Amino acid sequence: MEMDNSCNVTESTVEDEDVLSDPEICGSNANTEFSEELMLMLEVSTMTSYEKVSKGINHVEGGWPKKINADDTEVTARYKKNCIKDEHCQHIVMELASVMEHYIKLKDSKNCFPDLKGERVVEEIEYEPSARIINMLRDPNKIKRTATSLSWHPLDCHKLAVAYSCLEFQRAPKKMSFDSYIWNIEISNKPEMTLKPVSPLVCLEYNHRDTHILIGGSYNGQIGYWDTRSGSQPVQLSATEQSHKDPVYKVIWLQTKIGTEAFSASTDGQVLFWDIRMMNEPTKRVVLDPSKKGNRENAFGAVSMEFENSMAKFLVGTEQGLVVSCNRKLETTDDPIVCTYSGHHGPIYALQRNPFFPKNFLTVADWTARIWSEDIKESSLISTKYHMTSLLDGCWSPVRPSVFFTVKMDGTLDVWDILLKQKDPALSLKVCDEALYSIRVRDKDSLVCCGSQLGTVRLLKMSPDLCTLQKNEKALVSELFERETKREKILEAQYRERHQMKQSCSEEDEGGTEDMEELLACTETEFFETVEAEKKKIHDEEKGRRKVACGKTAKQDAEPKHPENESFSD
Fold it and tell me: Which of 225, 214, 224 is nearest to 244 (CA)?
């Protein structure tokens, strides 16, 4: 089939011609039969009547199922997550997206009748990840401090909260400022607002429900919250005797209806739950004691923490290189610790679940970054190579499920794509000469901010291929995680079988060694008994010989001497 773009129109005269009726068809019988049938149809149509009733359907909260309570944010969030993960739903959305994309392209196209004679060539875009620094936010104080925590404003994409502190133990300068700042990234020469804590802030987080409120954890262990409408001073602070005893390295808001609950983690081995309406004491305490006795002296020191509203557990990264999984609802159990994941050789500085697959989480520690599954506790699914310098922070991309970011001690930013390669980064960029301690990606965007040891926050813009969801990426990542999980389960089962076989063999060896020891003891006693018997026999024989010899000598002495012998001797 061929189609031409142009239409050829020519002028011509119009001729009117009457068509005469056929006399055979115009007979009376045909007309009467047709008219009778038409009248019968009209009578039937007028006899039937219809009743119209108008009804309406009232959809509340998008028409949730009967089992789902629309007022419960946790239940609705979990239901939404399950709907997003549903393969049927994903398939339907992909089909609709392709159809809509087709019609949008038709709408925007200039030529609605393209030339179909030529073949359509689709050019594949090459995967060339890149990044560039677009702005820098410098600490305005003379004595520079480390940018330890970063938090983007949930609604205003230009606001960034930065916590500044000195993490070197007992090495903080005497005149060091305690202030932290809220920046407008478009105005880099001066912070928009100053937060004045009683001790330097190690962590700082925006409240997603009320964006005017921020909560922070201090170096002295106290928790405080600020309201940007009230000024620079904290609205409330936790009591010192009820607070942490070590620096607070992580604080997270709980997604509740009120939005006033949070919990914090510290290296003193405690996870404390707070309500900012009453911060005299924590509402709950969790001691990360592996012996499950609640002893804080034996507890794991918490460095990082992760909480997902749709999951029943929260994760804690420790100084000992373990990830501790804890029960979220502490009222239903006496033992908060569910299990541990081991694999790192040092403190876990970053811990985050994959935003698309919450069962899989990322850990950054020592010289590697690892991806884990909640179902596998013995080892990680994916591990990067060992770097020459330590890794200090990391996070997932909020847009692409296969991409995550890490920062290192030498000031390098690494961008990883596990679908492209797993041992080496897809992009490695030297950001600065000092160590990078923190990183945060803006939601649904290509902007990444990195905080350095000297307090400078650098804003980097990623290339479109790093912040655009690729075709079938979710399905490929899901397949990758499932395949690696199955492989690790098989290896774990084999390891358990071998361990059981070794235990059984060791038990048999222990039983055999006991029998052997008994046999050796019996043989030894028999040997010494035989030796003693032989000694006694030899001793008796020698005694008998001596008696015989003594008897002979006595007999010879008793015999008289002959005279011949005497004369001869003379």
Answer: 224
- Which residues neighbour 26 within 8 Å (Cβ) at sequence distance 6 or greater? none
Residue with tokens 């199922």: 65
Token pair in block for residue 201: 């802030």
Q: Pull the structure tokens for residue 192.
A: 């928009």
**Tens digits of residue pLDDT in 257-315:** 888 999 999 999 999 999 999 999 999 999 998 887 778 888 999 999 999 888 888 99
Tokens of 3: 């189609």
Query: Cβ neighbours of residue 308 under 8 Å, at least 6 residues apart?
Result: 314, 353, 358
How many other C-beta atoms are found inside a 10 Å radius of the C-beta of residue 463?
Answer: 16
Query: What's the whole-model pTM score?
Result: 0.67
Q: Which of 273, 292, 270 is nearest to 282 (CA)?
A: 273
Asked whether the beta carbons of 301 and 286 are under 8 A apart, the reply is no
Class of residue 245 by CB neighbours under 10 A (exposed 0-12, middle 13-18, buried 19+): middle
Tokens of 18: 């009457």
| CB 391, CB 367: distance < 8 Å | yes
Residue 448 vs residues 78, 212, 283, 442: alpha-carbon distances, Å: 28, 23, 35, 6
Can you name the residues that pair with 131 across neighbouring β-strands?
462
**Residue spans of the chain under pLDDT 50:** 1-6, 9, 14, 25, 27-34, 42, 44-45, 47-48, 110-125, 564-570
Tokens 């990680």: give the residue. Answer: 380
Q: How far is CA 131 from CA 101, 135, 329, 431, 459, in A?
A: 28, 12, 42, 10, 10
Provide the token pair at 131.
């990044």
CB distance 152 to 159 below 8 Å: yes
Question: Distance (Å, rounded) from C-alpha 253 to C-alpha 307?
Answer: 9
58-107 per-position pLDDT tens digit: 555 556 787 788 778 888 888 888 888 777 777 778 778 777 877 777 65
Please answer whether residues 463 and 445 qualify as being in contact, where contact means their C-beta atoms are separated by less than 8 angstroms.
no
Interatomic CA distance for residues 461 and 187, integer angstroms? 17
